[in-house]
Amino acid sequence: MLFFKPLASSIFVLTLVMLQGCMVSRGTIGEPFQEEAISAIKKGTTTMGEVVSLIGAPDRIVRGNDREIFHYYYYDAKAPAMLLLLLNFIRMDIKSDNLYVFFNRNGIAEEVVYGKRTDRTQFRLWPFGD
């Protein structure tokens, strides 16, 4: 009977150790932008229909002050995790690319604003600070 106690304890400890681990996950929302399509939008000449044929339907349309704004976005998230018995550490890094195309009341592009930050998304396992 004494033989089973150390064996059971060893199996229990081994099982707990094996349940610990690391996990890496990644997710995106939307489609990455094609730089050529964005550069093809010309202020003062490109129409709404041309923007839709170049990039696709906008994710959001904002209307106001006799203008329409097409908003396109792409999100990238990376989340490594360290899974311990009683304590789990997860650090998520989310960045977005945003494209805004401002149209006048005639449906012609007046302004194009594009910001790209998803190329700076990082996996960082250490959950505290940089």
How would you describe what is shown here?
With 130 residues, the protein is α+β, with helices and mostly antiparallel strands. Helix content is 22%, strand content 40%. The chain has 3 helices and 6 strands, in the order αβααβββββ. It has helices at 4-19, 35-39, 48-55; strands spanning 21-29, 60-64, 67-83, 88-90, 93-103, 109-115. Strands 1, 2, 3, 4, 5 and 6 form a 6-stranded antiparallel beta sheet that branches. The longest helix is centred in the N-terminal third of the chain and has 16 residues, at 4-19. The protein starts with a helix and ends in a 15-residue tail after the last strand. The relative contact order is 0.20.
List the helices and strands and how they pair.
Layout: H1 4-19, E1 21-29, H2 35-39, H3 48-55, E2 60-64, E3 67-83, E4 88-90, E5 93-103, E6 109-115
Antiparallel strand pairs: 1-3, 2-3, 3-4, 3-5, 5-6
Key terms:
6 strands; 130 residues; 6-stranded antiparallel sheet; 3 helices; rod-shaped; single chain; 22% helix
Q: Name the assembly state.
A: single chain
Shape type? rod-shaped
What summary fits the major beta sheet? 6 strands, antiparallel
Tell me the radius of gyration. 25 Å
Strand/helix succession = HEHHEEEEE
Sheet-strand content, in percent, reads 35-45%
Structure class:
alpha+beta
The number of distinct helices, counting runs of at least 4 residues, comes to 3
